[in-house]
Each structure stands twice: as C-alpha cells, then as structure tokens.
Write a structure and sequence with these properties.
The chain has 557 residues and is an alpha/beta fold. It contains 13 helices and 23 strands. Helix 12 links the parallel strand 18 and strand 19. The radius of gyration is 31 Å and the shape is globular.
Length: 557
C-alpha cells in the first residue's frame, strides 16, 4: 500500500521578521535639525514696549500653540507613515514566504458552475498533503535517508466545497490508492510531458505537480476546482503548533508501531479518551493508518481533526482577532504552497473568510464511495452510481445533507414547459472533453433522438463543444420558463435533472453531449442508488464530536 515510515523529531526553522524601522529626517520646520529661536525673541521684543506687553504676550502664546500643533501634526504623520511602512514591509514579508505554482498542468477541462440568482458562485479548493522527504525537516519527521530525492506522492487529497451562498461546506477525500484515469500533464517547472495513463491517484503529484492532481480530480468528478493548496510534513507540524492544538479522541489505547509482517507506523501513542494534540503528535494522528485499520479510517481521523481545528479557531475568534490572524498568517504563508492565482496574503485571507459564517452543523466531511479494484484488492475504484451522485451534488452546488436537499426541492417550482415542437434546441458534440477523439456525428445522432421525441425543431451546431458530463443549458434571461423548457428536454432523453443548468451568456436552449455519453441511443443511467451519499463513507459532521475505534492489535501500550 504505502511507504513505511520511521519516527523522528524536528521543527522548521524560524522565520526572520521584518526589521525595525528608523527615520533620518528631523521634526523641525526648517528641516535642518535645529529648533528656530524667533518665537522667544519675539516675546522679549513685545515686553520692551510699555503699552504692548499684553498684546505681545498673546501673540507669543498663539505662536507657541501653533508650534505645538505643528509638532503634534508632524509627529502623527510620522507615526502613521511609519506604521504604514512597517505594515507594508510585514505584508511583503508574508507574501515572500508563499511558494506558488500553476493551477493546472494543461488539462483542466471542467466547466465552472454558473452564478446563482445573487451572482454568487461556489468555491472549490483541492487540499493536498505531500509525503516529500526532500528537506531535512521532513526527513526527521518520517522516512529513511534512501527516500530523499524520491518523487513525492500526494498521499492526502481532499476537496473543500463551499456553497455559493456560503451557508454550507463539505470536504470529500479520495483514498490515495484509488485507481483513476490521469490526463496528459506537463510539468510547469521543467516542461516535461507525461502521457495520459491509468494509475493510482497519488502518483499525479510526480506527473506535473499539484496542477496534474487538480486536472485528474476534474476529469474524475466533472467539478471545476478554483485553487489548490499543498502542505508537507513539516508544514503540518508548524500549523498545528500555530493553532495551539485541537481535541481528538480514541475509544481505546493506541500504539501505532510496526508489527510482525506489517512494517511502518506513525508511532502515535495515546491513552483512551480525549486529548489536545499539536506539533509532531498532530502529524502522527493524521498519518495513522494501521491503528485506525485502513486508509479510510485514517481519512475519518483526518476529518475529525479538521473539524476540531475549525471549532478551535472559531473559539479563539481567529477570523476577527487581528493579532491572532497575524500569528497564523506567519505560519500559514511559510507552510503552504498554493496555486498562483491565490498567491498573496490578501487573497488567502479572503478565502479564509469564506468559511467564517458557515455553521459547524452545515459542514460535512466524508470519503469517496468506493469498491475494491478487481485488478488489485489493495486498490479501490470510485463506486459506480454512488460516486456519480456525489460528484453531481458538488457540481450542482447542492448540500450533502439530505434534509437540506429536500427543503430546496420543495421550494423549487416553475411554469409548464412549452410544447416540444415549439422549442428550438441546439445539439453540440462535446465528447472530446476527456482527451479522446470526439465521437463522429454524435450531435446529429442525438438530434435525431430528440426529433423522435417531438422536438422537431432540434438542430446541430457546427462548432464542437467540450463537456465531461452531458448538460442542458438555458439562458439566464429566460428565467423559470427557460428552466422548465430545459427540464423537458432532459426528461425526454432520461438525462438527470442535475444536468440542467442556467448559462448567463447562452443564446438559446442547448444540449451538449458530453464524454459520459459517447455512444448509444439511451443515456447511460447510473447504478440505482437512492441512499444518502454520506452513507458508508465515514461521514463526519462538524457539530458532532466522536472517538476513533482502534484496531485491536494496536491497543497494547
């Protein structure tokens, strides 16, 4: 399955802070560093005239007041400018900490979700944990010297989805040993090109960097991913320390050490109950696999930790406390590598604020539905039907909570669709989105199907399209009537209603035949799966705390 690890200790070197500022110019009006003496002389001159003593005193007092006001004004200006300069240097210092990379490795094919009625769009961020041992800090925290220089693997992969209205969020993990179709990728650092292949998803990091991992997720799920973030072992330790620890719980004692025939281990050692963990122990928790029985158990433990961290940050008012934010920003910018379009402190701060208002009970975390790979029982595949349903919910920005989805459907209503013969539908061949050659005459074939269903005004487009999944789009300007008409097209061909989407710039009703329907006269139905997509996926809700079960061979202290 994965690499074996050995324990070790180490921390990342401290970050050098911005230096103290100084100013060379004096505060005096003449700019020469000497105080003018004319005010005092003037006061004496007024006193030498018998009738003008009181007037001279008043003039001297006014001049003194003006001088004091000028000094106060100049001092405040210097203070403000100095604070601004220090702030600017600190901001630039944080920006310089950030390591950046290309969002995609050249094969990002998913379509971005259209804005909702309020103009909001969902946010999707791919979070990657690298097992690289190519620094001294990372080597101390796990691995042998022979692993130095090796191609890193993306051993942790999670997609954070925040709904367009920012009222709910979800995190979906894909196990590292999932076999998938990996698209062709190009390494942006050296220009090396990798052909498309079928392999384990954790290998994507070594085939073009995080951008290739993102492209692979998009190919598998059809979900447009806005950004990626990556962290290594040392970064996890530093971030765990910066947060100040998070509570985790085990039902039994745990001692995750090598066993006969089972090498490797995280060396997590903990008594039964709840513990606040940080630093190296947090990394051990996140890496524990054998004691939590499998990669799926490890994913659940990771989700529990993430929920605990978010609760901890909320309790610290970390989203609003400036001082706390500064402390976290220092560590975060040094620990993270991010896609270049979010490669600044301000953009990362804005992203963090997206989670601020999401209630904990509206945060759901789970692991992809899967089946055992028939070619290798050490590997898994995305479960047909169940995984497809999960991806559709993410693409359509629907809550993973079944109760929330039911409420949304009750609110949804619209006018009666127009007669099929009166609807002008344009059919587009988008089958080439998966990197394969487009199916010849596919648009014409589906057009003919529509015409047999009564849509006699259906035509084809001479321009090819690109869609991983088949979709029916309608113009935003057509409103609820346009949606009803589009739903009638989808229903006629047994296309799921989740494929119906509003398109702000669309000219009319359009059916784009995607890579998921390359051949045949019947839309390929997903395997029957009416269950909640959270069922059987180690789901964890943010408002609930729980304890991990420990596999019995690892309970002996």
């Amino acid at each position: 399955m994965g690499r074996s690890s050995t324990s070790g200790e180490g921390t990342r070197p401290g970050v050098r802070h911005a230096g103290q500022l100084g100013w060379d110019d004096g505060l005096y009006e003449d700019g020469k560093g000497e105080a003018p003496a004319h005010d005092g002389d003037g006061a004496r001159r007024g006193a030498s005239h018998g009738g003008g003593r009181r007037g001279g005193s008043r003039r001297a007092g006014k001049r003194k007041k003006h001088r004091v006001l000028r000094w106060i004004s100049l001092s405040l200006a210097v203070l403000i400018l100095g604070t601004g300069a220090a702030g600017y240097l600190w901001y630039e210092h944080l920006n310089s900490n950030l390591r950046k990379g290309h969002r995609s490795a050249g094969n990002s094919a998913a379509k971005k979700t259209a804005p909702n009625a309020a103009g909001q769009t969902p946010l999707n961020i791919l979070m990657i944990g690298s097992d690289s041992r190519n620094t001294a800090e990372n080597l101390k925290l796990g691995g042998s010297k022979s692993s130095v220089g090796g191609i890193p693997l993306a051993d942790v992969q999670m997609l954070l989805h925040v709904s367009a209205d920012r009222k709910n969020a979800s995190v979906v993990s894909i196990p590292r040993d999932t076999r998938v179709d990996i698209p062709a990728c190009e390494d942006p650092d050296n220009g090396k090109k990798y052909p498309a292949t079928n392999a384990l998803i954790n290998e994507t990091l070594g085939r073009g960097g995080p951008g290739c991992t993102l492209d692979t997720w998009e190919k598998l799920t059809g979900v447009y991913i806005d950004h990626w973030m990556m962290v290594d072992f040392a970064g996890v330790v530093d971030m765990a320390d910066a947060v100040g620890g998070a509570d985790v719980c085990v039902k039994q004692n745990v001692n995750d050490v090598p066993k006969p025939g089972v090498p490797g281990g995280s060396y997590l050692r903990m008594t039964a109950g709840t513990h606040k963990i940080k630093g190296k122990q947090a990394l051990q928790w996140l890496r524990t696999r054998h004691a939590f029985e499998s990669d799926f158990g490890r994913s659940k433990a990771q989700h529990m930790y993430m929920n605990s961290v978010i609760r901890e940050l909320k309790s610290q008012n970390a989203f609003t406390d400036t001082g706390r934010l500064m402390s976290l920003a220092e560590t975060a910018t040094k620990s993270l590598q991010v896609s270049e379009e979010i490669g600044s402190v301000k953009k990362l701060f804005d992203l963090g604020m997206q989670l601020k208002g999401v209630p904990m009970d509206k945060m759901n975390m789970l692991t992809m539905p899967r089946i055992i790979d028939p070619e290798d029982d050490n590997h898994v595949l995305a479960k047909p039907g169940a995984a497809d349903k999960l991806w559709a919910l993410l693409r359509d920005d629907e809550s993973l909570d079944a109760k929330d989805r039911a409420k949304a459907k009750k609110k949804e209503s619209g006018p009666t669709a127009a007669a099929p013969a009166s609807l002008a539908v344009t059919v587009v061949n988008g089958t080439a989105a998966d990197g394969q050659a487009p199916t010849s005459n596919r648009a014409a074939g589906v057009r003919d199907l529509l015409q047999t269903k009564g849509f006699t005004d259906a035509t084809t487009s001479s321009e090819p399209g690109s869609a991983l999944t088949t979709e029916v789009t309608y113009p935003k300007s057509s409103g609820t009537q346009g949606r009803s008409d589009a739903l009638s097209v989808a229903k006629a061909l047994s296309i799921p209603t989740s494929a119906v989407k509003e398109e702000p710039d669309a000219d009319g009703l359009t059916l784009t035949v995607g890579s998921d329907w390359r051949t045949g006269s019947t839309f390929p139905k997903a395997a029957a799966d009416d269950s909640d997509p959270l069922e059987g996926t180690e789901a964890v809700n943010g408002a609930k705390t729980g304890c991990m079960d420990v596999y019995w061979p690892y309970r002996q202290m």
